[in-house]
Amino acid sequence: MLDLRIKKHRPLLVSVGIFITIFCACLYFISLSNTNFKQNQRLLLSGMARSQAAEIERNLSLSLTSTQILAHQISIDYEKVNHFESYAQTIMQSFEGISSIQLAPEGIIRYIYPLQGNESALGLDILNHPKYGEAAQLAIAERRMIVIGPVKLVQGDIAVISRTPIFTKTSNGNEQFWGFASALIMLTPLLEKTGIHQLEEEGYTIQIQRRHTDSKQTFDFYQSPTELDKNAAVEADITLPTGAWTLTLSHNITSVLHTRTLNMLFVALLLSSICSLSLYNILIRPIRLQKEVNAKTLELKELAFRDPLTGLPNRRFLNDHFPNIIKEIVANKSLGAFIYFDLDNFKSINDTIGHDVGDQMLASIADRLERNKDHDDIVLRLGGDEFAIIVPSLVSHEELKRKAEAILHNTQQSLSIRHRDFKQSTSLGITLIPDHGTQVLELMQYADVALYEAKRRGKNQYVIFDDSMHKQSVDTHNEEMALARALERDELVLHFQPQFDLSLNKIVGAEALVRWKHPDKGLVYPDSFIPLAEQSGQILALGNRVIEKSFEYLAYREALGLYPILLHINLSSLQLNDPNLVPFVKSMVQTYNIPGHYIGFEITETTLLTDINHAKETLEELKSLGICIAIDDFGTGFSSLGQLKNLPVDLLKIDRSFVWDLERDKDDRMIVEAIIAMAHKLDIMVIAEGVESNAQLNMLREFHCDLGQGYFISRPIPQEQFNDFPESITLNDLLDA
Ligand SMILES: [Mg+2]
């Protein structure tokens, strides 16, 4: 179950996995890229900070040198103190940022340039000053320049004081402390000169601080208006004669980093989404395809189980589903039924009014059956006008009878198609499940037997199968098998009834009539086995056997040197509609080397009417082989002589019912005379069948009937007897016979 669920959602899970993997990889890449970016920025800043610190250091050193220069001058010749102002002026002009220069002989400030504004410093005792004293002592002790500050001046500026001790040589060559040369160096102009503001304008932040060597306390004496960015801040030292300052340089990359990160996240999200969606699409495609195929297969399966004309389940549905329904009925120990039916005389509707009307009628009846069925019942169309209803659950036999009567009643209601009203009836054969069987074939066969019985009893009724019918069905089955064996074992023989030329008084032809030499029953006549052959689908094989036997006989006669005859063979409607008929006849002509004009085919009017156009085509093809076309039983059907004009007919066979009463019935005489006269006008010869008396023969001769056939001339006789039949016969021969 879990496996199935995982399998079902696998594309989604895989795609989510791919999304997470790609997104994580992107995050790693973003972090790597940001680190790189920061490192690059720091490298760049580091270079800049070092060069900026060096620049400050250089400028400051230069300015600090001012006191050393002054100290040097004084140490060489302290008389130069008298020219202090001019020295100081020169120095101030030469070095940047120096605000004032002082000289403090013996540590007390006596000279200041410029004096104006600095008067308060005059007389300041540096060595004993609480703030500067210690540093001054150190400078003397180490004989080097010291830098004090940076300090915040009263006016707000930041400055450093450079103080160099001055030593002069005594007469004995020793050096002795003379005083201090000091300079007040303003940092603002000095820093300005190093291009610090330019950097600030470019977005850099600078902080300069001094860290006290011992206390580690810091004093920030320069700070750009913008805040330092901790993400990208680098430090560089500014080395001074005493101690060092720290320059911190930063550039605001946090917002740049944010923007970069957001952009890259967006790209990562997009990339992960595209990849995972593409993959999902690829993975889902076979599933979608499978779904489509399944849906299509289901649809086709549905279609395969439906009859396209009526939309009802079809025979395939029956074969597929009926066994399960039967199983359920048996398992539930309930009662079911199979109702099998077709429409009485439906074939004539198709044949006479047309297949499209027939189809509409079937569709309407199917609709009516479907609408009036009970809930569980399944109405099926099995093909043609064959329908069936499966009743999966029956309460009683009365219920079944009510259903059967309802079907009969519903089918009988008139139907209006193309402004014409039609009335139909149906016959029902019913089997009970499981009483009559639990196999589909069995139930269908018995239902068919019951249906046959319903038709036999006069149609428009229902018959429920019973065991007596079973015997009948077994008998029918046995008979069918026997007929199949008869064809196999060649038990069929031909008898011949001579046809007599009334004017020439000689035998010109014969009608071949099939007989079955049944091993048990003896000679069986076609009335008994032709319907069986039709019902079991053996009629074509039987018909072809008769044709072949006829050709065989003609070849035999020729070989014996007997007089030539025109042999007539009866052709059923199924044979006439058989597309293999003409090729078969052609093959017979070739095999037995018998020209077509020795063969005639007798076709009844009703046979012709099933599909007159097709019949015409077939007859014309047969005619082209020289075969004589005869219309059998003429006068009993619906055809007129006018219709025959369009068909390739050579011979009319007047039905025996007209000949029978020729002596007594005036109407029959007139009809026969008229038929003969009209046929002759159409160049069609006439043969009368059922001639049983001399009077009939004479009358037919009077009407100029061409040929005659009947007991008066001869009964149908076996082959050996017919071989001996004389060609010419007189009236006396016939009367004697
Ligand atoms: Mg016939």
TrEMBL record:
SMART domains: CHASE (SM01079), EAL (SM00052), GGDEF (SM00267)
Single biological process term from Gene Ontology: signal transduction
GO CC annotations, alphabetized: membrane
InterPro entries cross-referenced by the UniProt entry: CHASE_dom, CHASE_sf, Cyclic-di-GMP_PDE-like, EAL_dom, EAL_sf, GGDEF_dom, Nucleotide_cyclase, Rev_trsase/Diguanyl_cyclase
GO molecular function: cyclic-guanylate-specific phosphodiesterase activity
Keywords, sorted A to Z: Membrane, Transmembrane, Transmembrane helix
Domain named GGDEF: residues: 334-467
Compartments in which it is found: Membrane
Listed name of the protein: Periplasmic sensor diguanylate cyclase/phosphodiesterase
Residues covered by the CHASE domain: 105-248
Lineage: Bacteria, Pseudomonadati, Pseudomonadota, Gammaproteobacteria, Oceanospirillales
Domain EAL per the UniProt entry, residue ranges: 476-730
TM helices/strands, residue ranges: 12-30, 262-283
SUPFAM superfamilies for this protein: EAL domain-like, Nucleotide cyclase
Main location: membrane
